[in-house]
Amino acid sequence: MFDPGPAADVEYAAAEGGGWTLRFVRDLRHPPERVWRMLTEPDALARWAPFTTDRGLDRTGPATLTMIDGSTGMPMEAEVLLAERPRCLEYTWGEDRLRWELEPDGAATRLTLWHTTADRDFVPKIAAGWHQCVRVMELDLDGTPHPPVRGQDAMHYGWADLEAMYRKTLEI
């Protein structure tokens, strides 16, 4: 049974230059350096993220992030814009822009994701997807790994309930 863990602290706003930005915040029991590795190392990303990467995301420059859905992969162009170990990672993913901020809190980390997308209706869907992915990351960090929750498989792990919860919370 997959325990989705606590709801993230979320809000959204119109993005400068168009689109909408979701702010998604979770507190993790692990130090920023460990969380940074989960966000940047290809082997670690493959264990929790909705994509795989052709290279480490710990340096600026182009990359390919391949969205995974079952046995299907869809490569998407990406560009790492900022990589300040272990506190800030920013990259594009297709048309979207993601900024991960890691703030130390004793031996723990406050993880804040800013995800900018064009369509306001996608904001609660994005929140539900990242909720599942960050939970899988957290389980991996805790030493109790769970297979990645990606694509249509997310429906078997409570994605619809999470999406409805975030839609209500965000009033979208």
From TrEMBL:
<protein>
    <submittedName>
        <fullName>SRPBCC family protein</fullName>
    </submittedName>
</protein>
<dbReference type="InterPro" id="IPR023393">
    <property type="entry name" value="START-like_dom_sf"/>
</dbReference>
<dbReference type="Pfam" id="PF08327">
    <property type="entry name" value="AHSA1"/>
</dbReference>
<dbReference type="InterPro" id="IPR013538">
    <property type="entry name" value="ASHA1/2-like_C"/>
</dbReference>
<feature type="domain" description="Activator of Hsp90 ATPase homologue 1/2-like C-terminal">
    <location>
        <begin position="30"/>
        <end position="136"/>
    </location>
</feature>
<comment type="similarity">
    <text>Belongs to the AHA1 family.</text>
</comment>
